[in-house]
Fold these 2 entries.
Entry 1:
Amino acid sequence: MALDTRTDRRPSFAGLMWRSTVGKKTVMAVSGLIMLLYLVVHMIGNLKIFFGAETFDRYAHWLRVVGEPFMHEEWTLWLVRAVLVAAVVAHAASAYQLSRRDIRARPGRYVHRKARTSYATRTMRWGGIILGLFIVWHVLDLTTGTVHPGGFSPGHPYQNVVDTFSTWYGNVIYVVAMLALGLHVRHGFWSAAQTLGAGSRTRDRFLKSTANALALVLTVGFVSVPVAVMTGVVS
Ligand code: HEM
C-alpha cells in the first residue's frame, strides 16, 4: 500500500474511503438520508399547527424536554442539532469535492462547460446552494429570531410561524425553498439508493416511485403551512 507523502504513514481505511469517489458518494448518501429522516419528522411535527396554538407550542416545548429525566433539559435537542450539523457539513463538503473532481476530470474543461453538465447535476448543485442558504435564514428566523419579522417570541412558535407567513417575502422564501427541496429529494433519494447498492432492474421502478412520493409528500406537507396562514386557515 502506498505511503501518504504528507505524513509518511499508511493511510487508514477511513482516509482511503474519504479520498475515493465512491467514499465521498457514500458520505453524501448516508448524510442525505439522515437529513431526509429529520425532514420527515419535522414536516409531520409542523402539521400539528393545524390543531391550534396550544398543541403546537406544547409540542415545541416537548422537543426541549424529550428524554427526561435521563437526559437533562435540551440535551436531546442538542444531540439532534450536532448530528444535523455534522450531516450538513459532510454532505456539502463531499458535494463540493466531487464537483471539483468532476470539472478537473473533463477533457477540454474550459470549453462548453455548461453543455457538459447534465440537467440533474445542475439542479442538484443549485438546489443544494438554495437549501443551504435557506437553512441559515430559517434558523435566524424561527430559532434565534434574528431576522424574524415583528417581535420574536421564544416558546411561542405558533405565533412566530404566523408572523413569518404574514409577510410576502417570508412566503416567497419558504415556498421557493420547499420547491427546491422537492426536486433535491427526488433526485437525491434515487442517487443515494444507487450509491448504496439498492438499485437493480427489478427495484428501480419502486425506488423511483418512492423518490417521487417522498418529494411530493414533503413539499406539499411543508407548503401547506404558509398556504394555511395566507388563506386564514391558521391565524
Ligand atoms: C414551511 C416550512 C417550515 C416550517 C413552518 C418550519 C418551522 C420551524 C419552526 C417553528 C422551528 C423552530 C422550532 C422550535 O424552536 O421549537 C424550526 C426549526 C428548524 N427547522 Fe424548520 N420549518 C420548515 C421547513 C424546514 C426545512 C425545509 C428545513 C430543512 C431543510 C428545516 C430545518 C429546520 C432546522 C434545522 C431547525 C432548527 C432546529 C433547532 O435546532 O432548534 N425546516 N422549523
Note: The chain is about 70% helix and 0% strand.
Entry 2:
Amino acid sequence: MKKLGELLMGKDPFEEILMGNEAVVRAMIETGTKVVTSYPGSPTPEIAAAIQRIPEDKRPFYFEFSVNEKVATEVAFGAALDGNLSCAFYKSVGLNVALDSFVQLGLMNIIGGMVVVIGDDPGANSSQNEQDNRNVYKMSRVTVFEPASPREAYAYYKHAAALAVKEKTVVVLRLTTHVCHARQKVKFDACKKSIPFKTDFNRENGPYIALTTMALDMKRLSIKKLHRSEHYIKQMGLNTVMVSKNNHGKGIITSGLTCLSVLDVLERSHYKPDILKLGAINPLEKDCILSFLKTHDPVLVLEELDDILELQIKALAYDHELKTKVMGKQSDEDFVGEYTPDKVMDKLSTLWPDMITKGEKAAVLPVKVPERPAQMCPGCGHRSAFFAIKKALEDTDVTVADIGCHTLGYMPPYNIGEILLCMGASSGMASGLSLFNNKKRVVAFLGDSTFFHAGLPGLINAIFNHHNITLIIMENGTTAMTGHQDHAGREIPIEGLLKGLGIESILSCDTYSQSKLTDLVKTSLKIKGLSVVIAKHPCMLKFTRLQRKKPGFVQTHITIDQKTCDQIHDCVERFGCPTFIRNPDETVDINLDLCIGDGSCRPSCPVKAVGFDKGAK
Ligand SMILES: Cc1ncc(C[n+]2csc(CCOP(=O)(O)OP(=O)(O)O)c2C)c(N)n1
C-alpha cells in the first residue's frame, strides 16, 4: 500500500481499506474543502493524523489545531464567509465548548458552505459522558447526516459538502466512535483539479448581525433551509428501505452503527422485519417515514442514547392519525451505552421472542480481554509530580482535577483530584470550594493544553475575585492524552502569560526534581490568595518515541540492587510506576519491556536500591 498521504492525494480513483476518519480526509480533498480546523479529542483525532500525513506544501487545504472547539468553529466559519468550503471537526463534548458560535451557524448565509464533523461517543469510550448531541442539532436547526461505516462516512461527507455549498449553509456529519475507527474497503473517486482559495467576503451577502428583529428573520431563513434539506435528502435517497420477503408485517427504523447491529442480529432470526435506515437524522424525511409507518405494524425505533427519532416518529404518526404501533425505548437501561449486536439481540429477543430465540448470541462474540485500568506511562512527569505533591498535602486539603493524562492522579496510590467536570473547570470549581473555607486549603490542577483551551477564564476569575486557591499547572509541552497534538504553548510561554496577568506568586520546577517540587507546593499553600506552581516535564511517551527513531539508540533501564533492597515497596505502593513487579516472595523486579530508564523512580527508594544499568545516563 502506498503511504497514506500519497494515497489520499492521488488524482485517480482507487480502492483501499481505510479507517472512517481517514476516508473523511479523502472526501475533504475531493470536495475542494479549503480550510479545515480542529481541537483534538477522541474519536476524531485520526482525521488530523491523516491530514498531517500529507506534507504541508502538498496539502490542498489550510489546516490548523485551533485553541479550542469554539475558535475552530469560528475560523472555519470565517473562511466560509470568504467563499471557501470549510470544515471544523471535534469530539462530542467539544460541541459544548463550540456551542455559543455553533447555534448561530444555521442563521447565517455561509457563502462557501461549511461541514462540521462531530464524533459522538456512545458508551463514553473516551469521554467524560455519552451525551447525545442530536438534542443540540434540532435546537440549532442544522442538517445532520449519519453514516454507519467508513464507506458511508466518505460518501456522506461529500453529500454534506454538496448540500452545504448549494444552500450556503452548515451541515453536520455525525460520526460515532466505531464508525471513526472501523476499517473498510472504500472505493474512492477521482480528484477534480484544485480549487483556489477565495477572499470574497461581502457584507451584502448577509445579514450577519443577528440582533433584535433581524434574528427572527434569520431564524425564518434557517427553517426554510431545513425544508430544502429535506428535499435534498429525498432526492439523493439518503434514507433507504431494506425489504424482506418474510417480514411478518413488522418494521424497524434505525440509523448509523445501530443499523449494522440490527443486520447482524437478523442473520439469526426466524423472520426479518423490513428496515428503514435513516442516513439523514435531521431534518427527518417525513414522506419516507410515513410510507414506512403505513405499510408496517408494529414499527420499532432502534436508536442508541436518547429517544430523539422515536419521539419525532411517534408525533408524526399521531399527526397523521395512523394506527401503527410505534415502539422505542422500553426501559431506563435502553438510554445507556452502545447498541452492540449483543444488546440489540437482547432487546429484540425480549420484544419479539418468536422472531429470535432468547439467549442466542450475536455474530460478534465479545472477546474477553484482561481488564487494563488506565495508568500513567513509565517515566511520566505527572507521576513524579503527584508523588512529590502528595508529600506537601494534608489530609484536609481539597484537590480539584481537570481533564488530561494528569486526571489519573485520582487513582491510587496518589488519590489526588477528587472532583472533575470538564476541560478547564478546575480553577472555577476550586474557587467555589474555597469560599468561606478557612479550614481546608484548595488545590486545582490544570494541563497546559487545557490552560489555553478553557483554563484561562477560571484563572482570570480567581485573580479578579481574589480567590484563595493554589493552581498547579502540569506542563508537559503537548496535548498528551489525545495523541500529542500541538498547542498554543509552543508560541506563548505559560509563565510569561501568568506574569502578564499580574499573578504575584508563580513558582516553577521540573517534576523530576521531586523534593524541590514538594517544597514549592508547601510554600505556595502558605500564601493567602492565588498562587500558581508550574510542574514541568516533557511528555515521556512523546520524548521516547522521538529518541527511539535516532540512529544508534540503545534503550537503557533502571536496576534494583537486590542486596540493598529492604522490600519497603515505596516504589510499588507510593510511586506506582507499572514497571515495578512485586513478586510473591516480596522481592521487586523491573519489567524491561516497560522501563524507559528515566530514573524518575529513584528518589522513591529510601535505601537507594534503585540504580541505572550500565551505560545509562
Ligand atoms: C471539550 C473537550 N475537548 C476535547 C477533549 C479531549 N481531551 C481530553 S484530555 C485532552 C487534552 C489534555 O491536554 P493537557 O491539558 O495538556 O493535559 P495532558 O493530557 O497533556 O496531561 C483533550 C483535548 C475533551 N475532553 N473535552
Note: The two ends are 40 Å apart (CA to CA).
